[in-house]
Write a structure and sequence with these properties.
heterodimer, A: mainly beta, six-stranded mixed beta sheet, about 0% helix, B: four-stranded antiparallel beta sheet, globular
Chain lengths: ~110, ~110
């Protein structure tokens, strides 16, 4: 089965600094990878996906993610963090008709 | 939230009672999903549907059943609720040509 792992439960960054939220994957075949964000008391919002093509994927709210096949990683990045980016972030991989999620990483951006 | 509503949004019930959660979509998407979200586990799939009256089990299906009698509605039933089913439940949809899923606002269920 396909799976993803998010090695960090919590990431803290200062506003204006670059941020990275890590994700590694384990798949057979070509991975379909996703990032979602969850704000308090809300459902998950789709940020971006990698299916094929360029390894750098751009998404919503200025986020991007880099697909690295040799390191089996799909890290989420943003050049300059905002306080409003504070939320819970989930990496996911498609597994047939299903989707497998990581445990989530809580990002806190401090002013 | 991508044309998806869930009802109720909050529910408190007692152990042993039946509970039904409803997911309604206006997108006419083929695939619908029920997940539960628990701290440290991310989201785990309970059941999903790939069409009217077509459903399949997910990773944590024990104690849950589903029904889909029309495209727009997907019901999740806890036949006899237990405290371990206290969780936040999310519905999601996916179009046939899509890869990503889109999520509803969630239902917070507490079983006392």
């Amino acid at each position: 089965a396909q799976s993803v792992a998010q090695p960090e439960d919590q990431v803290n960054v200062a506003e204006g600094n670059p941020l990275t939220v890590k994700c590694t994957y384990s798949v057979s075949g070509n991975p379909y990878l996703f990032w979602y964000v969850q704000y308090p008391n809300r459902g998950l919002q789709f940020l971006l996906k990698y299916i094929t093509g360029d390894n750098l994927v751009k998404g919503s709210y200025g986020f991007e993610a880099e697909f690295n096949k040799s390191q089996t990683s799909f890290h989420l990045k943003k050049p300059s963090a905002l306080v409003s980016d504070s939320a819970l972030y989930f990496c996911a991989v498609r597994d047939g008709n299903d989707m497998r999620f990581g445990a989530g990483t809580r990002l806190t951006v401090k002013p | 939230d991508a044309g998806i509503t869930q009802s109720p949004r909050h529910k408190v019930t007692e152990t042993g009672t039946p509970v039904t959660l409803r997911c309604h979509q206006t997108e006419n998407h083929r695939y619908m999903y029920w997940y539960r979200q628990d701290p440290g586990h991310g989201l785990r799939l309970i059941h999903y549907s790939y069409g009217v009256k077509d459903t399949d089990k997910g990773e944590v299906s024990d104690g849950y059943s589903v029904s889909r009698s029309k495209t727009e509605d997907f019901l999740l039933t806890l036949e006899s609720a237990t405290s371990s089913q206290t969780s936040v439940y999310f519905c999601a949809i996916r179009g046939l040509a899509d890869n990503e899923q889109f999520f509803g606002p969630g239902t917070r269920l507490t079983v006392l």
